[in-house]
Design goal:
This protein is α/β, with parallel strands linked by helices. The chain is about 35% helix and about 25% strand. The structure holds adenosine-5'-triphosphate. The site of adenosine-5'-triphosphate has 11 residues, from α1.
């Protein structure tokens, strides 16, 4: 993953005709992590989508080097098949091999649930499955939207370990969260409440 990079230069974001934020800059290279904080509606998810290339910047520029995996509130796993099959489907699209799926399931303590249909997973198990999809993808840039939501203490620790390994391997992680996460992220971007700003 050497050579991974994510750079935002003076980025502004407008949604629904409203300026959510402006002047956001960020420069991450291999092994770099950032946390996004801010109140509900400040634009954390929007900033992650902008980093993923799913949302255009109103102004400024976004540059990525390396594959991107986004974990947001959408399950993005087939409810009707087993967890292992659902993760393998995405791994094939990401050109990841079976060993990467097995390792990702192991990282999120999902191996005992491999044959359980996705629809039967609990909230926290689903979140772990979504994180396993990101881990299995082999993408250099992880964009995690509230990755700790629904996770118990043990699973939060697994998340922290997975992020730590990814950074050590030269990956990049940007995580948005309201709660403290066991994640080493030297950079914090706090998005202000734009309604308070406007007042
Ligand atoms: N598709 C859309 N069209 C128009 N406005 C949108 C759209 N999606 C989100 N917004 C608005 O953009 C603002 C920022 O939303 P966003 O989800 O990025 O905030 P957030 O900081 O992640 O919030 P939360 O902490 O609640 O997850 C909100 O006011 C929201 O209503």
């Amino acid at each position: 993953m050497t050579g991974a990079a994510l750079r935002l230069d003076d980025v502004a974001c407008v949604r629904g005709g409203r300026m959510l934020f402006r002047g956001v800059s960020l420069s991450l290279t291999s092994g770099g992590g950032a946390m996004l904080t801010g109140p509900n509606g400040a634009g954390k998810s929007s900033l992650l989508r902008l980093c993923a290339g799913l949302l255009p910047a109103f102004s400024g520029s976004v540059m990525r080097s390396g594959g991107v995996a986004l974990c947001d509130e959408k399950l993005a796993l087939d409810n009707e098949v087993s967890l292992h099959k659902a993760l393998s489907f995405w791994a094939a699209i990401d050109r990841a091999d079976a060993a990467q799926v097995d390792a990702a399931m192991d990282a999120m303590a999902l191996t005992p649930l491999a044959e359980v249909p996705v629809r039967m997973l609990s909230t926290g198990q689903r979140k772990r499955a979504m994180l396993a999809r990101v881990i299995a993808s082999g993408a250099a840039i992880w964009l995690l939207d509230e990755p700790g939501n629904g996770l118990d203490t043990v699973s939060l620790d697994l998340l922290g370990q997975a992020v730590g390994r990814h950074l050590s391997a030269g990956g990049i992680v940007v995580a948005a969260s309201h709660q403290p996460l066991p994640i080493m992220a030297p950079v914090t971007i706090h998005l202000p409440d734009h309604q308070a700003d406007a007042a």
